[in-house]
Design brief:
mainly alpha; three-stranded antiparallel beta sheet
């Protein structure tokens, strides 16, 4: 829409210049009509106000478009940085690889493009999204759970023992 508001501004300025030219011609006549000059000056003033408003509107629209373009470029850069980790089913940022595992909720990212870090739970590889209350487990967590289960004593059927 800035082209339309800029066009209005330029049109108002052009008309103002034409009115100024006609005013100069009026002032060269022997009989100057002050009322006619006053009317043309008011018309010029209104046109210049229209031009100012049109250009201000165009400037505001231009600012909004620049901001939207910056947002779009930032999202594109972030999208290129995000990588889906099959082990765990969450996203990580490639640029954060040297910082250790910083996992991001796949639901938050896919739905709203929000980078919500997953909370680390008590055991390594066990994560949770505080927004969606969803849980994610890596192979490290599954292997640890398997080792813990193998170390537990075999369950005892207490009822069978009491029957003896």
């Amino acid at each position: 829409m800035p082209a339309a508001t800029i066009g209005v501004g330029f049109s108002a300025v052009k008309t103002s210049f034409e009115l100024i030219k006609s005013l100069r011609e009026l002032l060269t006549k022997p009989e100057v009509n002050p009322g006619e000059i006053q009317a043309r000056l008011l018309e010029i003033q209104a046109l210049l106000i229209d031009a100012q408003k049109g250009l201000a509107d165009a400037e505001e629209e231009n600012r909004k478009l620049k901001h939207a373009l910056e947002d779009q470029n930032s999202l594109r850069a972030l999208t290129e940085d995000m990588e889906f980790q099959r082990d765990g089913g969450f996203y990580v940022r490639k640029s954060e690889a040297g910082k250790g595992l910083i996992a991001y909720c796949p639901l938050c990212w896919q739905k709203d493009h929000f980078t919500v870090p997953l909370e680390t739970l008590g055991t390594p590889g066990s994560l949770k999204c505080s927004v969606h209350q969803t849980f994610y487990e890596t192979a490290e967590h599954r292997e640890g759970a398997k080792r813990r289960a193998e170390r537990r004593p075999a369950s005892t059927n207490w009822r069978a023992l009491s029957d003896e």
